[in-house]
Design goal:
This protein has 12 helices and 14 strands. The chain is an alpha/beta fold.
């Protein structure tokens, strides 16, 4: 049994259930029995199955029709409000082993969802998956960790950051194990996750409470930095070993002094561009929040092996080109490029990150899970950066949608 909280939402509809279909198609068999989709907007069984069949045709178009029809026939809907009190799920909802729970809800309501689940009949051996961001700040991430402990042991909690399930992370880890570079061999490191797409209008209100730092710096970019810096364990599949190594690496990340923040960081927000409205004009956006859609910062690592090596993190939306990857500039050698390959989806045997996440959940493999200490360190860096911007008066710079982004103040 797979229980999905937020089963009618965008994450479940566009990624999670299509990912399950791709995984079952690749293995040509059922991997779970019933799929129970819990959402306050859940419709009738027939309505749910019809809508999900359409979504699967759109987001998993190459899957065999027989596998798609078989999965759709196993979908069940449960209408529930996470603010309700008392049990809603049937006592025998998890008749299969292992029972799987996926929290496919925004980070701002994860703690509420965990508290609601604590009042439900939960089976032994439950495996839990939660999507990034893990909370809305450092304090809520700690509260979420406590709430998750009430549902399942840490060793069975999968904190999902999809960048760790991309081929990009595989490339970087494989190269690290072959070369094991230290800072003395590296001149500088660029970590980039930029997009040409603007913020979708339907996501604008939620994005406005996050911004580029909370959305991407504290998760994807810091996770990639940790893969570069961490002392990789001899057995990366060991329970929590990679997460512990990455947490230790993240604890050494340092921001520039506030006197240098205006030179070593940039915050921006896109203005109107060809065919794209200004971010501030999107529905649900409060321009007074000064939410950034672009962030750049140069970090350092407080480790003797990495002294003097700058790590430049850049993320943004509505830019002139998409660039997702890591570049290691080696002293006296060619730069090493590790890229997120958008064309990989065309290759036979390719599985999207959502399918790889589900495979790990089914197999109990938490080697690519983000540990609670990692999440805490990510929020530490994000909050220190935002406080630094405020204290140093780093301005929010406008840039036209479709441009290269804001010019650094001290270029």
């Amino acid at each position: 049994m797979l229980l999905v909280i937020g089963g009618a939402g965008d994450l479940a509809t566009r990624h999670l259930i299509p990912g399950l279909l791709r995984l079952e198609s690749a293995r040509d068999r059922r991997l779970v029995g019933s799929v129970l989709l819990v959402d306050r907007h859940a419709t009738s069984r027939a309505g749910l199955r019809g809508r999900m069949a359409d979504a699967l045709a759109t987001h998993a178009p190459g899957a065999p029709a027989r596998r798609r029809d078989d999965l759709v026939a196993r979908l069940e809907a449960v209408a529930a409000d996470l603010g309700s009190v008392g049990p809603v799920l049937p006592e025998d909802w998890a008749g299969e082993v292992p029972p799987l729970l996926y929290l496919a809800v925004p980070g701002t309501v994860l703690e509420t969802a965990a508290a609601w689940l604590a009042a439900q009949p939960l089976p032994r051996g439950l495996r839990v998956a939660v999507e990034k961001p893990f909370g809305a700040d450092r304090a809520s991430a700690a509260s979420l960790a406590t709430a998750l402990e009430a549902l399942a042991p840490e060793a069975t909690v999968h904190r999902v950051d999809h960048v760790l399930h991309h081929g990009l992370a595989d490339q970087l880890l494989a190269w690290r194990r072959r070369r094991a570079p230290e800072g003395q061999a590296v001149e500088r490191v660029e970590l980039t996750w930029t997009e040409t797409a603007p913020v979708p209008a339907e996501r604008a209100a939620g994005y406005d409470r996050a911004g580029a730092v909370r959305d991407m710096v504290q998760s994807h970019l810091l996770q990639l930095l940790a893969l570069v810096v961490a002392d990789l364990p001899a057995d990366p599949t060991g329970l929590g070993e990679l997460a512990a190594a990455k947490a230790e690496a993240l604890s050494t990340v340092r921001l520039p002094p506030r006197s240098d923040l205006a030179r070593l960081s940039t915050r921006g927000r896109y203005l109107a561009g060809p065919g794209v409205p200004a971010y501030a004009d999107l529905p649900g956006v409060d321009p007074a929040r000064d939410t950034e859609t672009y962030a750049r910062v140069v970090l350092t690592v407080d480790d003797p092996r990495w002294v003097g090596v700058p790590f430049e993190l850049t993320t943004g939306k509505a830019l002139d080109r998409a660039d997702k990857g890591v570049v290691l500039h080696l002293r006296g050698g060619r730069p090493q490029h590790f890229r997120f390959d958008e064309s990989a989806a065309q290759h036979d045997g390719w599985l999207p990150p959502s399918a790889r996440v589900l495979a790990a959940l089914l197999e109990g493999d938490v080697s690519r899970s983000v540990g609670s200490r990692e999440a805490d360190e990510g929020w530490r860096v994000a909050e220190e950066l935002r406080r630094g911007w405020s204290a140093a008066g780093v301005p929010l710079v406008g840039y036209p949608a479709g441009s290269a982004g804001p010019r650094p103040l001290h270029a």
